[in-house]
Structure formats: structure tokens, C-alpha cells
Amino acid sequence: MPSKKKRIILVLLLIAVCALGIFLFKKEGAKGPKDQVTIYGNIDIREIQLAFYAEGRITKLYADEGKFVKAGELLGELDRDRYEARLNALNAKVKEQEEIVTRLHNGSRPQEIRAAKARMEKAKARLRDAKITYKRLLVLSKTKYVSRQKLDDAKAQLDMAKEALKEAKEIYDLKVIGPRIEDIKAAEEKLKALRAELSLSKVRLKDTWLYAPSNGIIRDRILEPGDMAFPNRPVYTLALTNPLWVRAYIPEPDLGKIALGMPAQITVDSFPDKTFKGWVGYISPTAEFTPRNVETPDLRTRIVYQVRVYVCNHEGKLRLGMPATVKIFTKRKRKEGNLNPSTICSEDQSS
Length: 351
Prior knowledge:
Structural class: alpha+beta
Strand content: 25-35%
Low-confidence stretches: 25-31
Largest sheet: 6 strands, antiparallel, barrel
Helix content: 40-55%
Order of helices and strands: HEEEEHHHHEEEEEEEEH
């Protein structure tokens, strides 16, 4: 009988020891390793609203929803007729003004100078003839053989000949000197303005093409060919594939354990057997309450700080909004000056 009691006591002790071991194991397991912090969040990316910089009717669109596009890829075109007509008109004006400036710089042609000199010599000859006639009539007027009216007419002809010679000489001098500096500068400034307008017209013609600013996936195709496009009216929504991060939240007691540059490991439910490399790229300077869409084992009302953990997505498996679990390794750290997502992911991919 005593041996039976001993066996019962021994069994109860064994059960108690096992229960204590299980409790301690679960307690330690719940705490997790001391050199890492686990937080929860969702995959997040940046989006761009793509629009034409010019305005006009859309003629062609080359991308549909879900298409992966590369930086510089042509996505759409506008009707170019009005822009090409304006460009052609300005080209003609620029060429015309260039000829005017060239003519002013070259000055008067030799033929123009010789013609002006000939007109001046003729004016001199008419002046000499007018002087002779006036002197002769002046002498005759004293003997009363010439009327006063003829003398007055001869005097008027002499005065007109003097003014004609003066005008012919000024024209000749201007032909020899050439155009005024002020006229040349004014023509050059007008040419400069026309060339600037021509350059702007060329830019506006290029604006009738819509290019992808960076690699990404077309999320929405908002307009269609035939629609009118304006700079403030988006045509596509482009989801950028780089950078990509997890928007997560860390409780205030754990905030001091993490720092910028610390490496991280990301897992998602869609690929439970795969891990993605990442690093802490942003820690919010202000506190907030845990958002409702974040699933954590702690109370939702506790104070948290937003953390952005960049992640490399070489295979394109991660999608916007995916719930993610992030493990941050607190014993290691990248240099804060080298946290560029494109650089780090490229290095990881090449290695």
C-alpha cells in the first residue's frame, strides 16, 4: 500500500515538473530572442498620377492595367497637328529675322553706295545751275529787263537745289556708314525672342508624348483615346516597384531597441516558406495610436511609432497591402549614409 502511494506521488511530481517546463518554455518562446524585435504591418508603395504636360485630344495609349513598364517607355500620344503647325510658323519667322540681322550686319551693298553718290552728284549739278541762273537774273533785274517774279522764282529754285543736295549727301553718308547700332541690336533681340519661342514650341511638341518616369506597374488606366487631356487630369496611376517597404508600428517600450539601418527579415502569408531581406529606413518622430488595420498580439490602444522597413522584391512577389511580419535584428546595423533602396537591393541581387 505505501509503495502504491509513493508511485502516485511520483507521478504527480512528474506531471508538475512537465507542466512547469512547458510553462517556462512557452514563456521564453513568447519573449523571443533578445537580439531581435518582431513587428507587424502591411506592404506599401508609392504611386504616381501620370498626366500629359500639354493639352489636347488623346490619339494613342499603349499600356493597360497590370502592365509592367520601364523608365522612359512611351505610354501615350496626343494629337500633334496644332503644335506642328505652330512650330513650322516659328521656324519661318526665325529664318526671316536671321536674314534681316545678316543684312544689317553686312551694311550697304556697293551698288547702293554708288547709286547714292550718283544722286548726290546730280544734286550738286542742279545747285550749280540754279546759282548761275539766279546770278544772271539778278544782274538783269537791275536794268529792268527781268521782272521781279522771275527773280523770285530763280531764288526759290536755288533754295530747293540746296536742300536737295543736303538730303542726297545725308543719304550717301548713311549708306557709307551702314545701319545704326541701335537698329542692329533691336533686330538681334527680336531674333533672340523668336528663337526662345521656337525652343518652347519644340518642348510643347515633345509634351504631346507621355513617358513612364520610372519602373512600375500600371494600376489604373483612367482615360481612353478620344478623351481630352490636360496637365491636371491623370491618364494613368503608376505603382512604383522601387522603393517598396513595410509600413509597420512598434510599441513605445521597444522603440529604443531599433535604429536606422538595422537589417530585417520579412515574411508574408502568401509565401510562408520564403523570407525577404530588408532594413529599417524610417522611424517616425511622433507617436500615434495603433491603426485598426494592424494585427498585433498586444492591445490596440497602446502608443506606437510608425516604422518603414524597406524590402527587396527582386521576384516581384510582394503586392500592395499584403500583411507582413517583420523581424528586426538589433545587433547589426547598416551605415545610415547608405540606405538608398535602389543601391542596396542592387547590391544584394548581384551578390
